[in-house]
Amino acid sequence: MRAYIVRQAILDTNQDTLGYEILYQGERVTDDEKKSDISAANAIENFITQFNSDEFLDGKMAFLTFTANLLLKRIPEIFSPQKLVIQIDDDTIIRPDALEVVHQFKEAGYSIAINRFQFVPRYFAFLDVVDIIKINFDYIDTSLENIVSLGRSFNKDIIAYNINTEDRYTFASNLGIKYMQGSYVSQKLPAKINKIDHLQSNFFQLMVAITKAEPVVDEIEQIISRDVSLTYSLLKIVNSAYFALRHRATTVKQALVILGMGQLKQWIYLLSFRSEEGPTPDELIKTSFLRASFSSALQPHINNIGIDKNEAYLLGMFSTLGSFMDISLEEALKEIFIKEEIKSALVDEDGPCAPLYKLILAYEGANWTEMKKLAEELGIPMNTVIQKYFECVEEVNKIWKELNEMGLK
């Protein structure tokens, strides 16, 4: 069975990343114990053997669900206790033999989390070994308040997941929950930019210029040179220890030659979301950059999509623009000159490149059924989609790490 794997960020109220839950096809979607074991085992094996899991996680903790049988086979021991949170479901709680092994993992230094915590006795009896309770916010009612209150009374960390709408986010925030997970969370800003004129700034002009099929160096130089912050950032990058130059670059043109178009696109994008009203959350920038890279990587495998590889990059990148600007995506895109096919896909999910955009969102949301349907519609083999996703995640994390090492983030 092929394993489809995606990571979802778990963020605190400051938008700092606690860790990533690793979701895989088959998880919580079947009552067939054998199929669940096979699905989990395949995903874990792929996660460990085919990809660099440390780069995939960007050094953060992995939240990974193990079936009761995999716990009995002591599969979590593959991971260091410092890098893994063992998540357990109801199938483990009702099995005394599996619970005994969970206690052993706890004593060995592993953190333990319960998925879909419920207000029932069998969960209470197990709380002594649990560090984290995860509460499903797929619906909102008063019982959630009771569960949160109970968790606090036992001094447990609480993670609200399926925070996919503003209503759920507001409800969880009002309950004082520190950690959240879901599609809405990674795009929630603690300080909004609130500046429509920022859409007309050099940053967006620069991004359009460098993603052309044939970028014009003189045009790029002109855009950067008239913006003091971009010029400063560019010169700081190329004169850093990372490039180890014998002679310092003193002009924008020199810096462009050293950096090259490929790296310029990546560095400027990550460096330019700055605001005097507050920093943009790391995870939002990473989400936008990952979508851009993923979209661009998939484009060559699709026929008659209506956009080229560079335009596919813009499709993914501008998908989070509304969150950055705190306005509707439609309003944001009116201020930028890009192909109508891209605008149509992002605003109306319509047109020739809409299936690519919807595929990216489906993968990101672990919507496996929709993902497979869209991949078939686009004619992309599933192994290609999976491979490109992992490659893009690791590339984004690699660049992020280099930014941190240079002190530029």
What's the architecture of the largest domain, going by CATH? Answer: Alpha-Beta Barrel
Low-confidence stretches: 26-31, 189-201, 272-278
Number of strands: 8
**Would you tell me the overall average pLDDT?**
80
| Residue share in β-strands | 5-15%
Do you know the CATH topology of the largest domain?
A: TIM Barrel
What is the fourth-level CATH superfamily of the largest domain? EAL domain
Q: According to CATH, what is the class of the largest domain? A: Alpha Beta
Task: List the strand order in the largest sheet.
Answer: 1-2-3-4-5-6-7-8
Shape: globular
Helical percentage? 40-55%
C-alpha-based Rg, rounded: 23 Å
The domain tally reads: 3
> What pattern of helices and strands is seen along the backbone?
EEHHEHEHHEHEHEHEHHHHHHHHHHHH
Euclidean distance between termini CA atoms: 40 Å
Judged by helices, strands and strand pairing, the structural class is: alpha/beta
| Number of helical elements | 20
Largest sheet composition: 8 strands, mixed, barrel
Produce the secondary structure layout.
Layout (H helix, E strand, L loop, with lengths): L4 E7 L5 E8 L8 H17 L3 H5 L3 E5 L2 H5 L11 E5 L1 H4 L2 H12 L3 E4 L6 H4 L7 E5 L5 H12 L3 E5 L4 H9 L4 E3 L20 H9 L6 H9 L2 H11 L13 H21 L9 H17 L10 H9 L3 H5 L3 H6 L5 H9 L5 H11 L3 H11 L3 H25 L3
Parallel strand pairs: 2-3, 3-4, 4-5, 5-6, 6-7, 7-8
Antiparallel strand pairs: 1-2, 1-8
